[in-house]
UniProtKB/TrEMBL annotation, chain B:
<feature type="binding site">
    <location>
        <position position="66"/>
    </location>
    <ligand>
        <name>Mo-molybdopterin</name>
    </ligand>
</feature>
<feature type="binding site">
    <location>
        <position position="159"/>
    </location>
    <ligand>
        <name>Mo-molybdopterin</name>
    </ligand>
</feature>
<keyword id="KW-0560">Oxidoreductase</keyword>
<dbReference type="GO" id="GO:0030091">
    <property type="term" value="P:protein repair"/>
</dbReference>
<feature type="binding site">
    <location>
        <position position="207"/>
    </location>
    <ligand>
        <name>Mo-molybdopterin</name>
    </ligand>
</feature>
<comment type="similarity">
    <text>Belongs to the MsrP family.</text>
</comment>
<feature type="binding site">
    <location>
        <position position="212"/>
    </location>
    <ligand>
        <name>Mo-molybdopterin</name>
    </ligand>
</feature>
<protein>
    <recommendedName>
        <fullName>Protein-methionine-sulfoxide reductase catalytic subunit MsrP</fullName>
        <ecNumber>1.8.5.-</ecNumber>
    </recommendedName>
</protein>
<dbReference type="Pfam" id="PF00174">
    <property type="entry name" value="Oxidored_molyb"/>
</dbReference>
<feature type="binding site">
    <location>
        <position position="124"/>
    </location>
    <ligand>
        <name>Mo-molybdopterin</name>
    </ligand>
</feature>
<comment type="function">
    <text>Part of the MsrPQ system that repairs oxidized periplasmic proteins containing methionine sulfoxide residues (Met-O), using respiratory chain electrons. Thus protects these proteins from oxidative-stress damage caused by reactive species of oxygen and chlorine generated by the host defense mechanisms. MsrPQ is essential for the maintenance of envelope integrity under bleach stress, rescuing a wide series of structurally unrelated periplasmic proteins from methionine oxidation.</text>
</comment>
<keyword id="KW-0479">Metal-binding</keyword>
<dbReference type="InterPro" id="IPR022867">
    <property type="entry name" value="MsrP"/>
</dbReference>
<feature type="binding site">
    <location>
        <begin position="69"/>
        <end position="70"/>
    </location>
    <ligand>
        <name>Mo-molybdopterin</name>
    </ligand>
</feature>
<keyword id="KW-0732">Signal</keyword>
<feature type="binding site">
    <location>
        <begin position="223"/>
        <end position="225"/>
    </location>
    <ligand>
        <name>Mo-molybdopterin</name>
    </ligand>
</feature>
<dbReference type="GO" id="GO:0016672">
    <property type="term" value="F:oxidoreductase activity, acting on a sulfur group of donors, quinone or similar compound as acceptor"/>
</dbReference>
């Protein structure tokens, strides 16, 4: 096992991070391209909106998986985590923008009422709002200024963001559907893995 | 006097598609979707812009974007999965407070049924909408045939549960069978349709073959699909979405832009098929059928009876 982990780690060290930012936005552009060319069925706006939300949630999960991967499998992908987190934020922004512009179409009265009155939107907005300080502080300059301990404390917000994201998903589907519950279970499991009392991961800012 | 502009299922065989569409558009316009003039009052009080607003959705749109959870919860699932359902032969168990209860075969049900074309707005609770050219006959016709007993006040409906061909019923997204219901006066309203076709083609499985309800002034989930049971009752029947989430889905579920749903604002809607930048439209009270149905609810607080 450690042989495999070593192999992955060696390869990962050789891969530069910056192409991830470029590759990462391709699926969003592809989604729009498919929608604009009529290949997303008869309701492209809803299809794009949902797919971007799904990508955002998947990226949040990927970000949460980095620490357990290292701890339990010795796989170190830490250097990609910032890119993954920033891409997650990008997808949430695109998801939100799609909703604002193409779905609800800047009808501000209705937007405002939706944010206040529809719990799944309220929760989605809360998750989005919490991601803003995380995105703003995801660069070395701010990291240095804040100090590592404070920075880590702040970035524990990602736990809450991911949880809220999955709650948002569970709430917006009709009836009890399996897919959002699976996402929620994965996120819960990734968070529970951090509650390893012997190693006190929270104190070490996992 | 009933204004019926077409009968017969072989109609499209002799009418070129373009003529068919053009004529439908016109009729939808003058009747403003009022069963294309059930009341025989073309254009009564309705503005001209409806002529373009009520352009029916394409057959493809209507048959590839469906909510039919027995075949899966995705919008495309029903079109993909419903093909295996056998709808011939098909029987509908009609019972409860009726004079002539029994298992009615589809042939029997269709015998002498006055099939008409009805272009109706269709408004989903998820805040999207379509315009659909149905073929079907008034539910009142069937109810008159089986004879409604004086004590009957409601009509209950059930959808088929066919685990062999319905992947969705293996999970309890809802409690199966899917159930719906109407008050008797709603059921007898001339707008209330039992649909057997779309665009003069037999209704596809994913749209509720071979027999489904269409209640155009209510949210789409009231228009129950693939009916196998109709029961006349004296008390309000249970309905699936109400059972699953009573705070969100009421028995009446009339389209009402002023009564908000916790998940979707009902003030506006997105018309399917309008393309990428189609503008949202304002949702109309009773989905635009107020003239025909508002009287049914006179004196009722529709915020309470949502
Ligand atoms: C961390 C933030 C968020 C995440 C992870 C997220 C994730 C998701 C996911 C996974 C879906 C469902 C996709 C599917 O059905 O397959 C979704 C749908 C949706 N989200 Fe979000 N979302 C977030 C924030 C927001 C925000 C801020 C808004 C708007 C204010 C929003 C509005 C919506 C809407 C309108 C839908 C579609 C609902 C429908 O199907 O009608 N989301 N989101």
């Amino acid at each position: 096992m450690s042989g495999l982990a070593d192999g992955i780690n060696r390869t990962a060290r050789r891969i530069p991070v910056w192409p991830l930012y470029i590759l990462g936005v391709v699926p969003a552009l592809a989604e729009y391209a498919l929608g604009l060319t009529g290949r997303l069925g008869v309701d492209p706006v809803k299809a794009i909106e949902q797919q971007l939300g799904l990508y955002a949630l998947q990226l949040l999960i990927a970000g949460l998986a980095i620490t357990p991967l290292r701890r339990y499998f010795g796989i170190n992908l830490l250097r990609f985590r910032r890119a993954i987190g920033l891409l997650a934020f990008f997808y949430v922004c695109a998801h939100l923008a799609t909703w604002l512009v193409l779905d609800i179409q800047l009808l501000w009265g209705q937007i405002w009422r939706d944010i206040l009155k529809r719990p799944y939107i309220t929760i989605g907005m809360a998750a989005f709002a919490m991601m803003i300080p995380l995105a703003v502080t995801s660069n070395n300059r701010v990291l240095k200024r804040m100090g590592a301990a404070a920075w880590r404390r702040l970035h524990r917000l990602t736990y809450l963001v991911a949880l809220l994201g999955s709650v948002h998903f569970v709430m917006l589907v009709k009836g009890w559907q399996l897919e959002p519950l699976i996402y929620m279970a994965i996120i819960a499991a990734l968070l529970l893995l951090r509650l390893d009392f012997r190693r006190m991961p929270l104190a070490r800012g996992a | 006097m009933r204004y019926r502009f077409s009968t017969g299922l072989r109609h499209s065989d002799v009418t070129p598609a373009s003529v068919f569409h053009a004529r439908r558009r016109f009729l939808a316009g003058i009747g403003a979707g009022v069963g294309a003039g059930v009341l025989g009052l073309p254009g009564a009080g309705r503005a001209a812009p409806d002529i373009t607003r009520l352009k029916p959705n394409t057959y493809e749109e209507i048959t590839t974007y469906n909510n039919y959870y027995e075949f899966g919860t995705g919008k495309e699932d029903p079109a993909e999965n419903a093909g295996a359902m056998q709808t011939d032969p098909w029987t509908v168990e009609i019972g409860g407070l009726v004079e002539r209860p029994g298992a009615y075969g589809m042939d029997d049900i269709l015998k002498g049924a006055p099939i008409e074309d009805r272009i109706y707005r269709f408004r989903c609770v998820e805040a999207w909408s379509m315009v659909i050219p149905w073929n079907g006959f008034q539910l009142s016709h069937l109810l008159d045939r089986v004879g409604v007993q004086p004590g009957a006040k409601y009509v209950a409906f059930e959808t088929a549960v066919l685990p062999d061909v319905m992947p969705g019923v293996k999970r309890n997204v809802l409690e199966w069978p899917y159930r719906e219901g109407l008050r008797l006066d709603e059921a007898m309203n001339p707008l209330t349709l039992l649909a057997t076709g779309i665009y003069d083609k037999p209704i596809p499985n994913q749209n509720g073959a071979p027999l489904r309800l269409v209640v155009p002034w209510k949210y789409g989930f009231k228009s129950i699909k693939s009916i196998v049971r109709i029961t006349l009752t004296d008390s309000q029947p249970q309905t699936s979405w109400n059972m699953s989430n009573p705070g969100e889905y009421g028995f009446y579920s009339n389209v009402n832009p002023e009564v908000d749903h916790p998940r979707w604002s009902q003030a506006t809607e997105r018309r399917i098929g309008g393309g990428f930048f189609a503008k949202r439209e304002e949702t109309q009270m009773f989905n635009g059928y107020g003239e025909e149905v508002a009287d049914l609810y006179a004196g009722m607080d529709l915020k309470k009876f949502y």
